[in-house]
Design a protein that fits this description.
- The chain has twelve helices and 15 strands.
- The protein is of the alpha+beta class.
- It folds into two domains: 76 residues; 306 residues, Bira Bifunctional Protein, Domain 2 (BirA Bifunctional Protein, domain 2, 2-Layer Sandwich).
- A hairpin with a 4-residue loop joins strand 9 and strand 10.
- The chain is elongated.
- The protein starts with a helix and ends in a 6-residue tail after the last strand.
- It binds one RNA strand through helix 3 and helix 4.
RNA sequence: GGAGGAAUGGCCGAGUGGUUGAAGGCGGCGGUCUUGAAAACCGUUAUGCUCGGAAGGGCAUCGGGGGUUCGAAUCCCUCUUCCUCCGCCA
């Protein structure tokens, strides 16, 4: 959420910057709500001051044994009026909060301006797409023959877009998780957590998945619980309503969790294989930083995620989101796109964002600057490091052989008991 | 699931209707002392909103919400969380 004080004083600038991402800020409504609010506050505070001074006076008069009946009745009416004003004000502030909570974050000034993903800008590339002396297959053709993926049975168990990995496929998934977590915890300084896989609406509001994106979530019936769409939600909310000590910053967490997304509105997109699923595993990186540190922390976060792909020797590129393609809460974000031979394209495998104080304000996450300054909002950042299911696809497709087997990348072999190649197998 | 108890500032902890935004302690910050440090001593130290150019005012906040009252940290109702005991399950 944006700072309402900033909005009040820089309404035109905010309107302008938000227009770069295709958001039309209703300046008139905001001005009207804001001035109504001010009027009510002034009137209410005037009456409360009257009530406070009169109460003191009544206490004094009682001591002096003076009759206060009239004064009391007078104040009773004032009290009634205060109650009415407070109720109206409460309703109005809710309205303002609702209004503000669906305004997206301001894009950073160094983000390329553009409304569509065509205007995203590639910033760097690693590796070359592998040259095959045969026609490489997509994973949905390759994997059933290997017996490591069974989508028909997954659909039977649940429905479409759920994964069922088997044998070496299942072990590859687990190896990837352990490999990624080891890199981030042992080498990149992240602490590992295992958070709840369901979160309440307050938490989802904090990361701004609610109220605007409820249709993307699975909700547990008759509860206030949602299946998490990413570990970002529970991990960011670890510090909701907390005040962190300065010397603890930056705090860096990593967590592997299943992610559940309803993918409403994506029908007809990526329908084959396991690229877009209702459930997938993801290793997430989350940082809480001082405001002045967040731009550089975003750069290092992206590098931390890239390192996983480098070690797996998977070709990728890094793309910066244009203003209009960045997520609702992001001020700036990079995607990492891995090369998928089966699609002959670079596809998203990680998204890394700086939210600045946008989530921190919603979730009320603050820190106390050393040297005794005022409590300030932290900046939050996060990124995938990486989406495990998509990494799984990338390995299978990039490391496939002419005979349909898949070579295991060197760095993963210790995690697979020395396995070097995935051969056809039947475990289901 | 049943029965009790508790929730106060960054932390600990007083406080049962009228200068209590809140004693005291710890911690933090500034200072005195010291070659330096520690100790000791002195001072200072919440957040949000609002008025103001500023100085400085005002309002709200003692887990959340509601109620009683001229007036609530304090009384009542309710919700949440935590603790103890019993039961159940792993």
């Amino acid at each position: 959420m944006l700072d309402l004080a900033y909005l009040r004083e820089n309404l035109e600038e905010a309107r302008q910057r938000l227009s770069h991402r295709g958001f039309v800020l209703d300046v008139e409504t905001f001005r009207r709500l804001d001035s109504e609010r001010k009027n009510l506050i002034h009137e209410g505070e005037r009456l409360k001051q009257l009530r406070n001074t009169s109460s003191e006076e009544i206490a004094r008069l009682i001591k002096e044994k003076v009759d206060v009946t009239e004064k009391r009745n007078e104040m009773k009416a004032v009290g009634q009026r205060i109650k009415e004003i407070d109720e109206t004000l409460g309703t109005l502030e809710e309205e303002i909060y609702r209004f503000a909570s669906i305004i997206p974050n301001l894009p950073d000034t160094d983000v390329p301006i553009g409304l569509t993903e065509d205007q995203n800008v590639e910033v760097r590339r690693f590796g070359q797409p592998p040259a095959f002396d045969f026609e490489p297959k997509a994973h949905w053709d390759l994997c059933p023959a290997l017996g490591i993926l069974d989508l028909e049975r997954a659909t039977k168990i649940t429905g479409s877009r759920f994964p069922l990995l088997a044998g070496a496929g299942a072990r590859l998934e687990r190896a990837l998780i352990n490999f990624m977590l080891d890199v981030h915890t042992k080498e990149h300084g992240y602490s590992e957590v295992v958070p709840p896989f369901m979160a309440n609406s307050r938490s989802l509001f904090g990361t701004s998945n609610l109220p605007k994106f409820e249709e993307d979530l699975f909700k547990v019936k008759d509860t206030d619980y949602y299946l998490i769409p990413t570990a970002e939600v529970p991990v960011t909310n670890i510090y909701r309503d907390d005040i962190l000590e300065d010397d603890r910053l930056p705090v860096k967490f990593t967590a592997c969790t299943p992610c559940f997304r309803s993918e409403a509105g994506s029908y007809g997109k990526d329908v084959r294989g396991v690229f877009r699923q209702h459930q997938f595993n993801k290793v997430e990186l989350v940082k809480f930083t001082r405001p002045e540190d967040s731009p550089l922390e975003l750069e290092s976060l992206v590098k931390d995620a890239e390192e996983v792909l480098k070690r797996l020797r998977l070709p990728y590129r890094v793309v910066i989101h244009a203003t209009g393609d960045a997520g609702f809460a992001a001020a700036k974000s990079y995607d990492i796109e891995v090369w998928l031979p089966g699609q002959n394209a670079y596809r998203e495998i990680s998204s890394c964002s700086n939210f600045r104080d946008f989530q921190a304000r919603r979730a009320n996450i603050r820190y106390r600057p050393s040297g005794g300054g005022k409590v300030r909002l932290v900046h939050t950042l996060n990124g995938s490091g990486l989406a495990v299911g998509r990494t799984w696809i990338a390995i299978v497709e990039n490391y496939q052989q002419k005979d349909g087997t898949v070579v295991i990348p060197d760095v993963l072999r210790p995690y697979l008991n020395g396995m070097t190649v995935i051969k056809p197998q039947k475990v289901i």
